[in-house]
Amino acid sequence: MIRVKFCGISSVEDAILAEKLGADFIGVVSDTVSPRYVKNEFVKIVKRYVTKPVVTVKVKGELGKILEEGKEADFIQIHRVLTDEELQYLNSFRRNIILYVPASGKFETYFRKVVSSSNYMVLLDKDNENKVDLYVAKKWINEYSKVGIGGGIKPENVRDFLSLNPYWIDISSGIELYKGKKDPSKMSLIIKEVREWTSIR
Ligand SMILES: O=C(O)c1ccccc1NCC(=O)[C@H](O)[C@H](O)COP(=O)(O)O
């Protein structure tokens, strides 16, 4: 079964609906760079209403601060490319971490460093310049079992991503009515596509 993370959730109402519809992970972006920004305290509030793991997404800042601020979340997704020193530092903590890796051949060395440093979940995603390279993504998904994929997934193209057989898929903007507000019908469509895809395989 391919798991589903709905990300960029910014209200309790959307979190409850995401879980009800069948999301496996509830993602919130607790970084001010995002138009979907929610405060760190939001994680604690959401966890009162959902049983599925809550992922807090962080981009900027020193790793020690990120880990401290994300302590209420079940997973911390660090959404930037880390330095060697940062990867080494992160290794000394026992936390559920999701590490972002741009799905582009340029990041092959970085991908290998990430998967050899610890048992992290990995999110293959677009970067500022490039869309997800599905060919590269397929290769990496086949090599390491805990690789998920995101970056422009929507109901119309989700099958292209499911065909790579990732550990999970990550969707935010493709299921929105507007930034920070989810569209129930698009969320349902994604879940329907995933279930259909899984049932015929
Ligand atoms: O959502 C944001 O605004 C955001 C800002 C900065 C870093 C990460 C951000 N979101 C991450 C996600 O929503 C997902 O983990 C993933 O990138 C999929 O997003 P999308 O391409 O919008 O489906």
From TrEMBL:
HAMAP family named in the record: PRAI
Cited Pfam families: PRAI (PF00697)
InterPro entries on file: Aldolase_TIM, PRAI_dom, RibuloseP-bd_barrel, TrpF_fam
Taxonomic classification: Archaea, Thermoproteota, Thermoprotei, Sulfolobales, Sulfolobaceae
Gene: trpF
Family indicated by similarity: Belongs to the TrpF family.
Catalytic reactions on record: N-(5-phospho-beta-D-ribosyl)anthranilate = 1-(2-carboxyphenylamino)-1-deoxy-D-ribulose 5-phosphate
Name the record gives this protein: N-(5'-phosphoribosyl)anthranilate isomerase
EC number from the UniProt entry: 5.3.1.24
Every N-(5'phosphoribosyl) anthranilate isomerase (PRAI) domain range: 5-192
Database matches in CDD domains: PRAI
Pathway listed: Amino-acid biosynthesis; L-tryptophan biosynthesis; L-tryptophan from chorismate: step 3/5
Top-tier EC class: isomerase
Keyword entries, A-Z: Amino-acid biosynthesis, Aromatic amino acid biosynthesis, Isomerase, Tryptophan biosynthesis
Annotated organism of origin: Stygiolobus azoricus
A single GO BP: L-tryptophan biosynthetic process
GO molecular function, one term: phosphoribosylanthranilate isomerase activity
